[in-house]
Amino acid sequence: MVEISETERETLLNLKFNDYLESMRQYAREFSVPIIQDEGLAFLKAIVKLYKPKRILEVGCAIGYSSSMMSLYSGAEVYTIERDPKMYEQALKNVKALGLEDKIHIIFKDALEIDNELNGLTFDMLFIDAAKGQYTKFFEKFTPYLNDKGIVVTDNMLFHGLLDAKIENRNLRQLVGKLKKYHEFLLNNQDYDTSIYNLGDGMALSIKK
């Protein structure tokens, strides 16, 4: 297999980052913040350009990287949820630095404890990229906010290649088991057409019927 550099891969994927976005990527590498992989980001870019969502709901903000990229790619208004105080503060800083305060709204709360924060809002797209063991709960909780023909994109569907691996650690084995059940849940859901793609760490696209 021919090895290519990170710059060459970004060129092939048609991804461009300004200095501040590069600093966010460096921060994620330095502090082991799990942000979307470049192949997954290229997929996400294609999706938002194709479907042109006006309002997106993201579960799992972290430092605001993917929410910023989605807004920059599409011009969409993004509501994003984060429960970690350090990540929340960093996301606020990044969104402000990128001049996206009017486009990106960060909700500081556990996603499963969201109650009336989204009252009156509907979304064209739901992006799930948070606790893998809660994916089914996130899907069930937030898809009622989707408009007709809304879409759901889920990251980390292949979970670093561990779905078919023999896992000794009990907690990790249980987590992988929940992710496998989410696969089955999506593929058997009669209200959505779902495809799972071997891009990045695995991306699922579910289209509301």
Describe what you observe in this structure.
The chain is an alpha/beta fold and 209 residues long. The protein has one domain: Rossmann fold (3-Layer(aba) Sandwich). The chain has helices at 6-12, 19-30, 38-51, 65-74, 85-97, 135-142, 170-187; strands at 55-59, 77-82, 104-108, 123-128, 146-154, 192-197, 203-208. Helix 3 runs parallel beside helix 4. The longest helix is centred in the last third of the chain and has 18 residues, at 170-187. The radius of gyration is 17 Å and the shape is globular. It starts with 5 loop residues before the first helix and ends with a strand.
What does the secondary structure layout of this molecule look like, with pairings?
Layout: H1 6-12, H2 19-30, H3 38-51, E1 55-59, H4 65-74, E2 77-82, H5 85-97, E3 104-108, E4 123-128, H6 135-142, E5 146-154, H7 170-187, E6 192-197, E7 203-208
Parallel strand pairs: 1-2, 1-4, 2-3, 4-5
Antiparallel strand pairs: 5-7, 6-7
Helix pairs in contact: 3-4
Low-confidence stretches: none
Question: Would you identify the CATH H-level superfamily?
Answer: Vaccinia Virus protein VP39
What proportion of the residues form beta strands (DSSP E)? 15-25%
CATH architecture: 3-Layer(aba) Sandwich
Span between termini: 40 Å
Which CATH C-level class is it? Alpha Beta
Tell me roughly what share of residues is in helical segments: 25-40%
Q: What's the tally of helices?
A: 7
Largest sheet: 7 strands, mixed
The domain count comes to 1
Report the mean per-residue pLDDT as an integer: 90
Coarse morphology: globular
Structural class: alpha/beta
Name the helix and strand elements from N-terminus to C-terminus, one letter apiece. Answer: HHHEHEHEEHEHEE
Strand order of the largest sheet: 3-2-1-4-5-7-6
| CATH fold title | Rossmann fold
SS elements, strand count: 7
What is Rg? 17 Å
